[in-house]
Amino acid sequence: MTIVARSIAVLLLASGAAQAGGPTTVPDDPAPTPAAAAPSAYDWSGPYVGLAFGTTGGDQTFNTSPLTFPFDDGASPSIFAGYLIQRGNLVYGAELAYSDGDDVTLATFSEGLRYMVDLKGRLGFANDRALFYGTLGYSSVGYVSLPGNTETDGFAYGLGVDYAVSDRFTLGLEYLARSTEGDTFNAGETRRLELDTLSLRIGLSF
Question: Which residues pair with 125 in a beta bridge?
Answer without folding.
Answer: 90, 132
